[in-house]
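thread: overnight batch results

M.L. [08:02]
morning all. the overnight job finished for the chain we discussed friday. pasting input first so we're all looking at the same thing
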Amino acid sequence: MAKGDQLIKIATRSSKLALFQANLVGRLLGVPYELVEVHSGGDIDLKSPLSAIGGSGIFVKEVQAAVIRGEADIAVHSAKDIPAKLPDETIVDTFIERGDPRDALVGSDLAGLKPGAVVATGSTRRKALLKILRPDLEIVELRGNIFTRLDRLRDVDAIVMANAALERLNLADVKRRVFEVEEFMPQVGQGAIAIEHRCDDDRVASVLARVNDLPTQLAVDAERGFLSQMGSGCTLPVGAFATVESGRIQLSALVAALDGSRVIKRSQSGEEPRLLGISLGEQILSEGGSELLLESENS
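M.L. [08:03]
and the structure it wrote out:
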């Protein structure tokens, strides 16, 4: 701990996964910290589809507000939950080393699902990608925390969720089939933990600089650059994933029809993450992605 370090207040959702991630960040910071638990709109309304209540941003809005009001110094988020546009008062420029970005089919192997099997997910991206792999599946809504979702296995054949969440909660014994990135494109930022703070808080910025993982930051910044051209999060059938090697970023992304009938997938590489993401987004939109997104918004 550096001399003179002061208490850092960390805003977080109150789910077990969110608290695990907030405490992980707190320990990494190496300074005294305390958690400020916030109940997000997404945690209160567990029945409505995400697309009907504001998309993935519904999980971070109240947590961000605690930072803006000065009730907390930083907010810890699953990077995949952060919408493309941030409040003017805050910045997300710190990421700890990324966990597993992949999705997992929980409860069954894909080949083991009988024709017409019921699979639950609340993500339009996951719905579309499942339909590409298995057009015969019946896809139903899935909401709630990790354990609430796992309980749904009592009445559906399988569910889809982030493998990183299962790993962080030590649920290694949960039966699952982990999809490779090439066959099931992750959500933007999936597996990464992001830290948001006020733009004018130099004290906090200096503390966060000690823990930032640059390869993760470059990768997620590129993915979020792509997302900025698409819209926002779980309400759209889009995915992106970037890797970094020797300072060069390789970014792949896709836009899919909701029914899985069409998909546009492209890749680009570069060194400036946000510009790379924007460029790839513009390419996909110009090659038919705009029409697919319009169809998904009107469905």
